[in-house]
Amino acid sequence: EAGVTQFPSHSVIEKGQTVTLRCDPISGHDNLYWYRRVMGKEIKFLLHFVKESKQDESGMPNNRFLAERTGGTYSTLKVQPAELEDSGVYFCASSQESAGVQPYGYTFGSGTRLTVV
Amino acid sequence: AQKITQTQPGMFVQEKEAVTLDCTYDTSDQSYGLFWYKQPSSGEMIFLIYQGSYDEQNATEGRYSLNFQKARKSANLVISASQLGDSAMYFCAMREGKSNFGNEKLTFGTGTRLTIIP
Q: CB B44 to CB A110 under 8 A?
């Protein structure tokens, strides 16, 4: 099966611009997560979708970040306007919620490296 | 609140030697899961090993084993017979334990950069 796909792999934008990151989860995975790693720090949870609904968005830094998952398939994470501190690597992960699935069912994408200059 | 601590920002190990990467955790949950991920320079996060809080045996996956000491709240990763391809960032993570179905967020540590020396 295809893995979790993220694009772009890299993005360099100027402060104040808008950037949209995309994540295509594994087909059939209801759960989709966004995480972010700022240089030298831990990977932090941003939010969790179950299908098209936001299950938990407690990690979203502020209202400049908007995540959507229309139709419960792919997800986008928009940063508008971008600030310098938004630089980091944004990871997406997906998992399937069903009985019998092994507990280590999270599959991560390769991440999008965002640089705001 | 959950917390994962990885105290080794970087490690250098001679090829073929065993290496232990430290991870301690803090949680008030009785049921939880612990993960180790590898992130090579290519960027993807590769799952290595999982340990459930109620598992009595230490998890093993090939050259990887997890030294789980519940009373000390530690979950160290042991890599036996290290190889050059093991050079990467390694992250310890914990899942809050409501179910085993992979639908809870993970809390990560800051990672350890492992470099294997030929």
A: yes
Compute the distance between CA of residue B34 and CA of residue B66 in angstroms, rounded to an integer.
Answer: 9
- Cα angle vertex A107, ends B114, A94, to 5°? 140
What token pair was written down for A78? 């928009």
The CA distance from B93 to B105, in Å, is 10
Terminal-to-terminal C-alpha distance of chain B: 41
Flag if A97 and B52 touch (Cβ within 8 Å): no
Is there a contact between B101 and A56 if contact means CB atoms under 8 Å apart? no
Question: pLDDT (tens digit, 9 = 90+) per residue, B9-33?
Answer: 999 999 999 999 999 999 988 888 8
Structure tokens at B11: 């490690």
Nearest chain A CA: its distance from B4 CA (Å)? 9
Query: What does residue B100 show for φ and ψ, rounded to 5 degrees?
Result: -105, 15
